Model the fold of this input.
Amino acid sequence: MDDSALQKFHTDGYLVVRQLVSQSTVNQVFDRIRWICAHRSELPDELIQIEPSVRDGHKRPAEFELGVRKLFRIARHDLFFRELASDAAILSLARSLAGRQLILAQSMLLMKSPGVSTIKVWHQDNAYFRLSPPRVIGFWIACDPVTVANGCMHLIPGSHHCGLQTHSGPGDEYACEQIPADEQVVAVPLNSGDALLFHGELLHFTPENQTQLRRRAIQLHYADAACESGAGPEGFQFRPEIEF
Done:
């Protein structure tokens, strides 16, 4: 990562890296999602989280996979994703932004399937982790092409400079209490394989998928191994997945 990219990241709190992941790897991700869904009865309960509208019986997708909201802590539970999170190119970028000694703070695969998805409310990821100092970096890697219509990331450039904001609400509704003004918001469309790198205290949200197209994205959070974690929201337990 050159000096201009580093400066942009530190100023704006985010950076787009084109084609960080190959299409071959993306295809393997899709294969692995299908395998996990097919073998769900054999896997840990926390790995597969269902969309609320599907879980409550209000919506019935054509197949099980289309009702999944996220695959949670994927690197902890699956070797393929553990190896992906340990990729040398990804770790090199993470080290340039967070520090030489890293932990994988959390890994997820965010599904946002058509017809059942909801918004992910405005929040800062470090509001969950409560890492101090806040040397935590998110990698949001698009597997499908990601657009405004199907739920790309929306963010507030520079908002990481303001520190942690007050959050409240249960589970996936844990939200920043002060909603940003529309004119501050920047949408970040991505092609398959592109990655959005963002600071753990950057304000962001994703809208619901309003198309008939899939919108799957991998999210990996890396942090300086020297960070200490405080008390996050009720029901959230911080458990680092890998040490590097």
